[in-house]
Protein: 1-phosphatidylinositol 4-kinase
Organism: Salvia splendens
Amino acid sequence: MAVAVDHGHGFKPFTRHPRCRLLSFTQLDYKMLDFSRDQSLDLSNIHKSFSTPCLSNSSSARDDLHDTNSKIEIIIGHAAPRVRAMVVEVAIAMASGVKPEPASSGLGGAYFLRAQNGDTIAVAKPIDEEPLAFNNPKGLGGRLLGQPGMKCSIRIGETGLRESAAYVLDHNGFAGVPPTALVKFSHINFNINNPASDSASIYKIASLQRYVKHDSDAGDLGPSSFSVTCVHHIGILDVRLMNLDRHAGNILVRNGQERPSELVPIDHGFCLPEALDDPYFEWLNWPQASIPFCEAELDYITRLDPYKDAETLRSEVPSIGESPIRVLVLCTTFLKQAAAHGLCLAEIGEMMTRDFNGRDENWSTLENLCINAKARLKKPLIDDKIISTLKCDDHKQPEQEQVGEKDGDKMFRFDDKHKGFLDQASHIHETPAKDNHPSMVVKFANPPEMPLNKIQDTFLDNNIIDDSPSTTGGNLMRSVSCSVPNYNRDGQCIYIGEMEDEEWQTFLGIFQKLLPEAFEERKSMDLPKHRLGLSCQF
Ligand SMILES: Nc1ncnc2c1ncn2[C@@H]1O[C@H](COP(=O)(O)OP(=O)(O)OP(=O)(O)O)[C@@H](O)[C@H]1O
């Protein structure tokens, strides 16, 4: 068998729904491993091929139609350590005729790739088999790539990117994310729900992660056998990446000869959302999270450079886009300052998590800080997606916060002096809803600055726009009614990706100035301490 590394651009660009951003895989430096089933394996040849890259002849989708040889191509992760070795092993296994084995667990399509001797090498998760995606094999399919997925802030088809990003950002294996890449498989039998209509079935894009031998996952055990270090390291990663999905099943447990067990974090598809969202941290209530960071951990956190990490993502995972990168910068900044103020992991995690009391979900402390920081920017914040119905009026009533009630909607004055406005916004959900959508009215002190088109653009994809002029008290009132789709319970996320660069920098500066007071307030609460009372051994 000849295994060759290809620096060419072997496949046609991967596109998705026309209204959605293109995944710019054409910009990426593809490296391809070709292998053929009818030739014998020659490992010495593999090494030679790596050191002497050569071009593949199979450079178009048309060629692929006539080429039945299996291929695997690294799209993201070719510079990451230990990725190539994993891909070579998978390539050899596939060349020997080994078939991917579907995993029964998980909501998405996942496949174990085994070597000829039966050892599992890696886990592949095709992006079109994610939960809700059209080729999902577990009855959860039907949607196009690029639409909001299980989490409103992460699009269908983009979890694989994030799995790779988590590995790239886990510097020196601090949290122990297994080697992960985004790859393209061709001529491999993954699931297709409607073969007749699927013309692109000759290849699939998938995340590929090194399989980790394990004894159980964290859901099978209580946390008392887990090492403080493992919990802290995984928690630090989750905070940086705003992981929305750190449930116990996503932490594998390896029992050593002695306690404590080693923890391995997997499944990072719901990290790095496009907007601030509600993270889920299983470790939040584990006693280890309430133990202060040790010197080495504090040193690691101090040395984290959010801007360098942002550059790393831009160069190594370019298709991820700027919004998730901003979430990374914001969360890393938050972590660094929180740790410097002496907060423990549990306190930091709690500040990032929304408060759900069974009926209402309130913004997290982190989200409230961002709302306040945005309110202090000069520009009116009308494109925040916290607003589902907007009305504007140049009639100023500066002394009043709530300026009235109309058709069941509360009316609030809004200008840049009125920083309390966005605190009020947390009460939006309690206002009477129209057509089952939360509703509010905002009065703008400065109508000319209101980019009405921008509002319409923001909501156009999924909403009904009603732009009807009316008059109130002699003042022109423009009305824009939009229904925010029900992504989550409240249909709301705080977006930070829409700001211009300069505005973003100003926002970050304001955000950082707000942090010390918030940390002091958090430290004055003693919530996490009671957890230390639980009986556990470390
Ligand atoms: N790197 C790995 N090493 C060992 N097992 C793994 C690895 N990655 C995933 N698995 C296992 O593969 C199965 C499916 O993986 P995973 O849970 O990540 O899929 P998913 O569809 O994204 O799941 P979920 O519904 O929890 O989001 C699980 O049993 C998981 O434990």
